[in-house]
Specification:
It contains 15 helices and 16 strands. By secondary structure, the chain is α/β, with parallel strands linked by helices. The chain has one domain: Aldolase class I (TIM Barrel, Alpha-Beta Barrel), CATH 3.20.20. The strands form four sheets. It has an eight-stranded parallel sheet with strand order 5-6-7-8-9-10-11-12. Strands 15-4-3-16 form a four-stranded mixed sheet, with no helix packed on it. A two-stranded antiparallel ribbon has the order 1-2. Helix 4 links the parallel strand 7 and strand 8. Helix 11 crosses helix 12. The radius of gyration is 22 Å and the shape is globular. Bound molecules: iron/sulfur cluster. Iron/sulfur cluster (SF4) binds next to helix 13.
């Protein structure tokens, strides 16, 4: 029996729309629903919930149901550390142009109906300059995906553009803010860029658009971390993510040593900023840095590849594998066939020495209390990702470290250029639960996600 159906949001399966493009085929062999995302809370941890306007802050743990799409690598800025800078500069690159609206809709429909996601990050390049962006935002709302734009927000320094954004129904923005004033302008290569961004923040705040910040930890940004944090407090950002500058994708051939600050210098600068944001009840995340460069008190904020699966603003692994795949980013190509996380694991396991039926074939894998089958598979993929896709390394210091089961180690290029001397292995038995520290971190749970995020959790200290 076929498990494929044909459907277009808003139409019955047997209806056709006059003159419309052929409806996408939804192969339900990989269909995911609410039950696939259920997790069991650790009964030894008290679940707290602080209610805010439109969201809560809580240490409840739920698997992200957020998809992602790359519309095309076209951008109005030229950030020197951009992972996609070669594609952005080259108008002839197959991933440069924005994909067609029909393809964008098909991709979103599959993220929703097959992979069971309830939110989507729409990124470009710069999605605000995509000609059909407001129609796409409307479409996402129609099919049950909360749309977020990952944006530099410069386009929203004009009230009329903010009005369009609001009337289309954007859920929120993830705004890249890498410094203030001249520092920002220099990093992004556009004079006056920071002034436009500040104006946009003001207009967005006035219009009631929710937003969060992304800040890349390049050398110029470090002295301005406090200013970025103060800007978050001033404009009411819900979360701030500080992201280690790692040489991924187009940066992998550059290794600009002088631009990469040392992990330990970054940690030193981040500690007071983390405390400041936390005291102001703003979620703060430090992405892709080794746990051991932070004191134990601050490790709950550190998110390696295993931890981001519990960040409701990060990408659900299985749909990301598909929507981030080559042809999904190539503007002129159709969406490629769907595939599952098991398909990907079947390719990667043998490369890591995993035999048939062998569950824990590398040191990072091991039994975890209250883990679901999906959590095991997702953790396994994230561990293999740091070996084969975004290469990290663990050197002799890591081999006896208690955190080797939940830590990515050092980025391989960072270790090659700068070395491994900053590692401080932790003593004790090996930890395999990615939530080991993170289960104490307060993170944003939007009201639209509360039903499933808090399912089965008993909140022992509610506050309102
Ligand atoms: S595994 Fe390695 S990098 Fe990670 S915390 Fe331990 S010593 Fe540090």
């Amino acid at each position: 029996m076929s498990n494929s159906i044909t459907a277009v949001a808003g139409l019955d399966a047997d209806q056709t729309r006059q003159g419309a493009a052929a409806a996408p085929v939804l192969d339900l062999a990989f269909h995911r629903d609410d039950s696939d995302y259920l997790v069991t809370q650790d009964p030894t941890v008290e679940i707290r919930r602080i209610r805010k306007n439109g969201y809560s802050l809580s240490n409840v743990k739920a698997l992200s149901r957020r998809g992602v799409m790359w519309l095309g690598q076209t951008c109005n800025l030229r950030c020197y550390f951009c992972y996609f800078i070669d594609k952005i500069k080259n108008a002839h690159h197959p991933e440069h142009a924005f994909m067609s609206f029909e393809k964008a809709k098909e991709l979103c429909l599959k993220v929703r109906e097959v992979y069971g996601n309830t939110a989507i990050d729409i990124q470009g390049g710069e999605p605000s300059i995509c000609p059909y962006i407001y129609d796409l935002i409307r479409y996402c709302n129609e099919i049950g995906l909360k749309p977020t734009l990952i944006t530099n927000a410069l386009w929203y320094d004009k009230p009329k553009n903010v009005e369009k954004l609001v009337s289309a129904g954007v859920f929120d923005l993830l705004i890249s803010i890498h410094g203030i004033g001249e520092t920002y302008d220099k990093i992004v290569g556009v004079p006056g860029g920071s002034a436009r961004q500040m104006k946009a923040l003001e207009l967005l705040q006035q219009a009631g658009v929710a937003f969060r910040f992304n800040t890349t930890l390049c050398r110029e940004t470090l002295p301005e971390l406090r200013q970025v944090a103060e800007t978050a407090v001033r404009f009411g950002a819900r979360a701030v993510n500080y992201i280690a500058f790692n040489p991924f994708v187009d940066q992998s051939t550059r290794r600009p040593e002088e631009q990469i600050p040392r992990y330990s210098d970054q940690a030193k600068m981040l500690l007071p900023v983390i405390d400041y944001l936390d005291a102001n009840e703003i979620e703060v995340n430090i992405r892709y840095m080794p746990f051991c460069v932070f004191p134990e008190s601050h490790r709950k904020f550190v998110q390696n590849f295993q931890q981001i699966i519990y960040d409701l603003h990060e990408w659900e692994t299985e749909s990301e594998l598909w929507s981030g795949g080559g042809d999904n980013r190539v503007s002129a190509a159709p969406c490629p066939p769907l595939f599952s996380i098991d398909d990907r694991l079947a390719e990667l396991r043998p490369r890591a020495g995993g035999g048939a039926g062998e569950a824990f074939y590398v040191p990072e894998l091991g039994p975890v209390d209250h883990f679901s089958e999906r959590e095991y598979r997702t953790k396994e993929y994230r561990v293999l990702q740091t070996r084969f896709m975004h290469p990290y390394t663990k050197e002799k210091e890591c081999h006896g470290c208690a955190l080797t089961g939940i830590c990515d180690g050092f980025h391989r290029d960072y270790a090659k250029v700068i070395g491994f001397g900053e590692a401080h292995p932790e003593s004790g038995p090996v930890v395999h639960d990615p939530r080991h520290y993170q289960r104490h971190q307060m993170k944003v749970v939007e009201d639209q996600e509360a039903d499933w995020a808090f399912a089965g959790a008993s909140v022992v200290s509610p506050q309102s």
